Amino acid sequence: MSYTSLTYYVMVIFLLPLYYFVPRKIRWIVLLVGSIFFYTQIITDVKQFYFLVYSVILSYLAGIILQMVRTTDRLITKKFILFAGITLSSLPLILEKIRDISSGVLFGQAFSSLVIPVGLSFYTLQLIAYLVDIYRGVIDAQKNPLKYCLFITFFPQIIQGPIPRYDQLGSFLFNGNEYNFNNIIKGVQLVIWGFFLKYMIADKAAIVVNNVFGNPHVYAGGYIWVGTALYCMQLYSDFMSCTTISKGIAEMFGIKLSDNFNHPFFATSTKDFWRRWHISLSYWLRDYIYIPLGGNKRGRVFKWINLTITYAVSGLWHGGSIKYLIWGLCQVFYQIVGEIRNIIVTDFGLEKYSMKNKWLSTQINRLGTTVLFMLSVIIFRADTLQDGLTLIKNMLTVFNPWIFFDDSLFLLGLDSKEYLILILSIMILLLVSIKQESGMKLRDRFMEQNIVIRWVVYLLAIWTIWIFGSYGFGFNSNDFLYGGF
Question: Could you tell me the pTM of the whole model?
Answer without folding.
Answer: 0.89
